[in-house]
Design brief:
homodimer; alpha/beta; TIM Barrel; 11 helices; 38% helix; globular; hydrolase (chains A, B); Metal_Hydrolase (chains A, B); Dipeptidase (chains A, B); EC 3.4.13.19 (chains A, B)
Chain lengths: 333, 333
């Protein structure tokens, strides 16, 4: 298939390799929001960044870092995949407000305030109760706004999400989740949250992780695309993108790290269970990044205009990063 | 004054020096709960432990570490001050349940679950709202129970404190605070909390930090001792001790570290204010550890029996540590 449409995947966490990046190119991807860390501390995050530096050094023909939104156009023009680094938790900043700018300077463009559990900033979607954004969290949101680090509430609880949107002066995103009206799950979002994300001029990236889908691994491409079309009525097409949550070639130990970090002595199965502890079976129409053209075809098939498809497939992500991932100009004293 | 009564101070954080330890001996102190860290990470906590090792090496005639409650009797018999190490926040374990046992093995006997702000475990008394003990917090309480690390809720919010008491199978303490019926302050405790501490067979250490006292630095010894006598009616005398919160010879930078850690870009004044940012003026009757005999005299003067005074001045702290700071025996498999 010839490459015509700017394409961005708003969340992947694969076992990165040359093969994975070649599949991205085959599938027409121009940029991917790649998860850098789940629970890693500041020091450990620096090592994960070091690993990315090695990849950029090893495969400059295939990938390049995205430090500013304009880098995506550079990646596209040169036939490479731009890597947008993001953290699924606030662990990279530990307890230190100054680490927000340090991490942004190193290329961390997107950060979730929580991952399932309570963090120092906000509450995750697996806690019994949510008391909203903390004192530290309020300061971190302001600092993320200032340095242009995008606030991602994918794994956060509802009240914390609504408060983050209220406190933030810039758009807030959910990089990978679905409407709970499509499929009820702790990780999926209420209409109230989705409307607030749209009102913040933010973005929802639709997840293709089977635990977030109606009928799980048997969810059809048509069901998925119809969900997107319905959500456009709620949020406006310009606030929609893709965030597949593809985690390719990862061992179960990685799933256990995501779910348990270092906080649990008991096994926590997250969205799975003791009898269903493994990765879910992949979707037949999205086995890996090479299947991205299926999404384009699927969106066309449910009746979307070319402009709308182009927005969802990538342009909306670029526009979001231009709104939220640039440094705020400050007047000289 | 000749030394007759076992004496323990349940909280000090001074700028440790030979002079400070000599003052403790002059005041008749046999053991002190010494704050090891406020916001230090795991690695930083190891350095603070290293500094204590140097002190124990330098002044073996004056101080010794307390690893088990029985060490206090050893300190008393040898005329030294036993050092009970405690953390005012859960920062030493970071996000890692395994660090509870590691820290206990290194001699950390007492740990607060929060310091004013939301932590990964529970909510602090300066947050707007408190959603109780987190998923990680529940596991940490269980682990602290197992290894014999005492749960201290001095700087925690009310709901988190009540939930910690409910979840914990061992006594819970408030090492340094006062009844809010004596002086309303965010750091002081409601009768409900104090009763629950007593029901857990825990302990309240009465603070002599002016911000926790009626009339602040002008609070009289009689007022202080009458407060203790009244609280005995509520909690039972066996659940009371002293926890002065003496912070001697510390620069204002230390107060700023306590209040701001690394989380705030704005100056947080804690219990003070912009116009009252410094350490409070000391009490005339407790200028430093040498004034501990004043407390004994004061308690006698408000009509307490010798047994009651001996309990409050030290025996109750020893009994608490015997109940809460010993390793739980586990049956072999």
């Amino acid at each position: 298939m010839s490459k015509t449409m700017l394409t961005i995947d708003g969340l992947q966490y694969s076992n990165w390799s040359r093969e994975i990046f070649e599949q991205m190119r085959e599938g027409g991807l121009d940029a991917v929001h790649a998860t850098l860390v789940y629970h890693e501390t500041t020091r450990e995050t620096l090592s994960r960044l070091g690993e990315w530096n090695r990849r950029f050094e090893a495969w400059p023909d295939l990938i390049m870092p995205v430090h500013v939104p304009q880098d995506i156009a550079v990646a596209q023009a040169s036939g490479r995949v731009g890597i947008i680094l993001g953290a699924q938790n606030c662990s990279p900043i530990e307890d230190d407000i100054d680490m927000v700018e340090v991490m942004r300077d190193l290329g961390l463009m997107i950060m979730q305030l929580t991952y399932n559990n309570q963090s120092l900033l906000a509450c995750g979607c697996y806690e019994a109760e949510d008391s909203g954004i903390t004192r530290f969290g309020r300061q971190v949101i302001r600092e993320m706004n200032r340095v242009g680090m995008v606030i991602d509430m994918s794994h956060s609880a509802e009240r914390s999400t609504l408060e983050a949107i209220e406190i933030s002066e810039r758009p807030v995103i959910i990089s990978h989740a679905n409407p709970e009206s499509f499929h009820p799950a702790k990780r999926n979002k209420s209409d109230k949250v989705l409307k607030a994300i749209a009102e913040s001029d933010g973005l929802l990236g639709f997840s293709a992780y089977p635990f977030h889908l109606r009928n799980g691994s048997d969810c059809t491409l048509t069901e998925y695309c119809e969900m997107i079309a319905r959500t456009a009525d709620l949020m406006g097409i310009e606030h929609l993108g893709i965030g597949t949550d593809l985690c390719q070639n990862q061992p179960v130990s990685i799933l256990e790290w995501m779910r348990n970090g270092r906080w649990s002595k008991d096994m926590d199965y997250g969205e799975g269970s003791a009898s269903n502890a493994d990765w879910p079976r992949p979707l037949s129409w999205l086995r890996d990044s090479r299947d991205f053209p299926n999404l384009i075809a699927g969106l066309r098939k449910v009746g979307m205009s070319e402009d709308d498809v182009a927005g969802i497939m990538g342009k909306n992500w670029v526009a979001l990063l231009e709104r939220a991932a640039t440094r705020q100009e400050t007047a000289p004293a």
